[in-house]
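Notes from the 1:1 (GR / supervisor)

We went over the backlog. Supervisor wanted to see one worked example end to end before approving the batch request, so GR pasted a single chain during the call. The sequence is below; no edits were made to it. Supervisor asked that the structure be written out right there so they could see what the output format looks like.
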Amino acid sequence: MFHYSLRVAFTYRDLEILTIIKILHLTNVYFLAGLCAYVVLLQSNRFHVIHSIIKNGFYNYPEGLTQEQMLIRSKANHKWSKEYNGWIPFVVDSWAKYFLSQFYHLMAALSAALLGGSVCIVFIAIAEHLLAQLEILCISFRNAIGFIPAPGDRVGEKLAYQRVKSCLQHHNIILKFFDEFQKYYSIPLFCMLAGTTVAMCTIAFVVTDPSSTFGVSAAFLSLMAPEVAFCICYCTYGQKITDMSDILRDTVYNAPWYYQPKPVKMALLMALNKTRTPMTLSAAGLKDCSIKSIGEITQTTYTYFNALQLFRGKPAYHRE
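Structure output shown during the call:
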């Protein structure tokens, strides 16, 4: 990150705005990768909580899981051209120095790419476990509510209440898991969404510049592809979690509660209160991760791109 920004700081009077934008794009990529790494490391204790909940199977029902629920959990368990060298403290005037500088670039690029990919893969794995548990809970609620004891059957009423109570206990664990998941990925999600907006804006500026060659445009478009793919992945899984929590709410709401004894009705009312607000992943509490966010990011990118067009063709030292 400093490697690229130092070039702008030391030689900005000799650079065109297009070159500065290209360098700032790479600086943005490395800055966000480093920030994500720091936050993930800082929140490592939350990851241990998430891992322990997954390892313990979330919740063990007294009567066990059905074959359908076991299959859902099993599936979740198995998902887991031109270069800009920046500033360096020596002049590249020999093959040895050239290979040394290129090796540094290669290691830095690989580190950023592996970090971004690893954070995304872990996110998908955790999200899949959460989705699987929500689906299992929906089935458990349907099975529990479908059991209607006969009037005056005290044993049956107690059994019906115990089944709904088990569902509530399972839901409490899922809520705790989601809370840890949200806090663990809050800042990385914000970095990814904000970084994608900046990246798309700078890349659009580079690609549409009249002086850009096909090689430069192709290189920057290839850089944009994984960033946009990560953004779509995060927003898509955020939407899936919200949709699945809505299904859980509808399952409880549409239950034939009027046939159940009073203790079961009270338990269902508590479940309805807890599922009233859908689970929504947010980026630092500023933006929700959903399909709608993809359109908002595109609109914001277009706005900033039009503002950046004002500087096109101006040397760095002429900017006010």
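Supervisor's comment: Strands lie at 282-283, 287-288.
Batch request approved.
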